[in-house]
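Lecture notes, unit on protein representations.

Consider one protein chain, 190 amino acids long.
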Amino acid sequence: MGGEKLLSRNLTEFFRELVQTAMTSQEVRSSEETEFYLVSLLENFAKPRRDWFERPLAIDYLESFRSAAADRQAKLRHVADTSLVLSGLFMETLERTLVGPRYYVHLGRQAYGHLAAASLHAASPFAELAHRFEEFVQVLSEISFNELFPGDRHLVRAYNRWLLTGSSRDRAWLERQGLIPVRSSERVRH
């Protein structure tokens, strides 16, 4: 039992440092409550339940509206948290799926919005996560990019992240690497 506490404490400290570093790097500020929520989210995701990915998120999202209040909150939180983790940490993998990362960003933002609306605490992290979802995707993406899955594909990862979030920081980084990011709808003159 003592080893479990030590592991939990170290894992919490590890993710707290990663979140704070990424938030500083991405120039994202948040409430302490939201920062703690992100740390807890990463910690829980490091030890996910066995059934975490058994059902499509859209089913839980839709079923939440016909569920009792407690079940509704649990389903919406699962949808929101999973969407944030997937779109932040595994954006490249989502690019190869049928729906893609934009779907998860929209779904996560909506689920956090419903959680915020149902929260008795006006300054809940859910409201901040709903309103600034893309910024927190950038924070998790920074953690994925630099700490969890570093590699030679930084340029592609940064470009995909820029396409999704429109981050001026990612654009500047890409330009420093000699690339000028362009969305397919933008016209380029040569």
